[in-house]
Amino acid sequence: MATIPLTAAHREDFVILLVLVDTEDSMEEVAAKVAAHTVGIRVPAKPAPLQVFWQGKPLPPTAKVAEVGIQPMDFVEVAYAE
Amino acid sequence: MPKLERAAYYDLTRDMNWKLRYVSEEEAFPKEQSDSMGVPMEAWWSWDEPYKLTYREYVHNQSEKDISAYSVKAAIARSSLFDRIDPGWKAAIIAHYGAIAIPEYLASIGEARMARFGRAAAWRNMATFGTLDETRHGQIQLYFPHGLLDKSPQFDWAHKAFHTNEWGAIAARHLFDDMFTANDAVRTALQLTFTFETGFTNLQFLGMAADAMHVGDVEFGALISSIQTDESRHAQQGEPTLKVLVANGKKEEAQKLVDLMFWRAWRIFALLTGLSMDYYTPLEHRSMSFKEFMEEWIIRQFMDQFRDLGMETPWYWDTFLAELDWYHHGLHLGVWFWRPTVWWNPDAGVSPEEREWLEAKYPGWNDTFGRYWDVITENVRQGAVEKTLPQTLPLLCNTCQIPIIIPSDPKRRGQSLEPYTLVYQGRKYHFCSEPCKWIFESNPARYAGHKTLVDRLLAGEIQPPTLEGIMAYMSMSPEVMGQDATNFAWAFATPRPKGMAAD
After folding, report:
1. Does pLDDT of B411 surpass 70?
2. Which residues, other chains included, contact B60 with Cβ-Cβ below 8 Å and sequence gap of 6+?
3. Prediction ipTM score
């Protein structure tokens, strides 16, 4: 139960952002936090779920930040699942 | 008292080099102030500047320039010309003044260091004039905006910017400290007078002067042209310094110094000049696109000169060329979106006609950057302006201090958008590009202690750690915070029907 900063981007956006997440957040919640700064802001909204990628691998939506082992200022990328 | 003809005395008085006997070379020219890189003292005495002048000539020329520039200013002050100037152009000059005026004084420190520690008398002489030039530039680029304070409090940032922790000011300070404030005389000659002034400042000053005249900002055009003639003279310290190094087997060292600073200069120029030329200058007055200017002034003219000296294009040349198509477009989008964090009012520059121009000059713009602006435009039309304002910070590069942006076409970067990173002495650093990472790695002790604005936030140095706290840390007040220059008029403009002639 701690707040950690991540570096994050939506794959279709143009900039890497500072996004705060909680270590108990699921990937679905992390994706939503990144989407809040990007989807409908600069990236067109799509009726498709958002996936979180870390170290190049997609993560299951229910996995939690602490479980996965994401560290402060690690990079996560959010993209629409095909 | 009769005045001597210049030819009778110039060569004699110019060559005031002598062998030191009472102190050592190292005592008189410490390495920290003047790194000769192993080139012997007398080898420096061949230093030869192309354009020679006496102090008497200097004073005469400079006073003529000042009379001219100041009389234009006085005439304009009596008119209502400024009130009729395009808001996008106002953004360009307000950004320019804040980013450039105080650094001119810092440059006079760099010139003064060369005036004492340059390793040839002729060099020290040119640097003495350079010191006076840069002092002049600081003064004139404060005096002109001072006269415009009643038009906007943003003109106060001509003086204030460099005394704040606004992110652009941090980026400019980091660059200029690296280039000359905290640099020895030899490196300053290569990195400031050669790389930055011979190459890049031509763009900002000549390009802006041309656009200023088109726009009708006679005052700014006169100011800028006047500055650039000084620049051309003191920038000439670069080439002779480079020639001495190359002639004495130090070409590799010289190449590296130029490569280090060329990239940094590109970064700041894309930010300041890229935005001004392609988005802030009114469409009908854009003489050339930023890319066209870069191609003419850097890729052709500067690189021709560089290659004539036996030097090579930097190792990252292909990366640089590719960036000419997208990098400044990304910076513009970022600066506009994060507009409350800058001291000017960014002109979005994306009306239908402007987007046509952007597409013509940068084919594919509408399909890449245009897509972001489509979402933003729709939000504006729906009255959802809050969706066009930032709620977090972008990640900043630990070298250039500029936001880490990526091509809007992800295919250009491969699969991952991951920033470049480095762990040095237990601390993680982020970079926007391979060259910025390379710059840091070339001398980590020089850069490692510095914190970006984001680092400071995460270290608890910004209190409270909220958007309000960040704005206060950057000294951004409501009357200065950037707003859209035309109050979103561009979002409601209808496209001109095809086939109609331009106004």
Report:
1. no
2. none
3. 0.98
